[in-house]
Amino acid sequence: MKPPAPRLSRALVLATLSGYAAWVVFPMLWLGYSSLKDDRSIFNDTFTPPALGSLHFENYGHAWREAHFREYFLHSVVVTGTSVALIVALGAMAAYALARFYHPVGRAVFWLFLAGLMIPAQLAIVPLFFELRGMGLLDSRLGLILVYTANGLPFSIFILAGFFRALPRALYDAAVIDGCGEFTAFWRVLLPLARPGLVTVAIFQFIGVWKEYFYAYMLLGGDTAGDARTLPLGLANLSIASLFRSDYGMLFAGLVLVTIPILVVYLLLQRRIVKGVAAGALKG
Domains of the chain by range and CATH? Predict the structure, then answer.
């Protein structure tokens, strides 16, 4: 009989998790209170929170107006919202077809989609650049949305296919007996049951698209892209707004404006993220 495996003490586990939490949370807190300091305080008292009487809330006003974060924020909302909606809708339909209908070609297509997860962005950017330029979509929100949608489909299909495979076949058969067509059975019966997967995909894609910089920089870097640049590109505009002077207070304020939506979404829906990823991966 094998001896029982040694168990770590509760105090050691708690100390390890507390240290990891502090390691993750402190940079966020430091970023937050540094955005309320001037440049001199940032350098002289780097890790010291500012006094209540010397809070520089004008850093946010400067970033919002002078660095055009108001326009960049709107562009990010449009690009992210449209991209996530297309990824979830197209990914759900593709995952349903590939998971519910068994065919050798379907399996090949499924693995072809999964192969997209292994293609680095740096490898695909050159053909994407010339393809968008040929279509007249370079330096436009539509071109960036199409790239984000194509880039997010492999992950969404991988997660959602696991959910659709786990659904009992009897549910589909009962819907057909009740007179539902293929699309009606998918839309009214099976798609609502895959809601945890849909939420998981939407959250991950929102976080990824909202903070994405490489594609945006390469595809919106032209002189005609001023009305399409997103928030990550807006951070690069801070140095221009400050006349190439290092305004670190305004820079930290811009970073906070970019980070807040991601933190809000993650904190509100973190349980769904863990549950959805675990269920989709295991069921797949």
Answer: 10-54 (no CATH), 60-283 (1.10.3720.10)
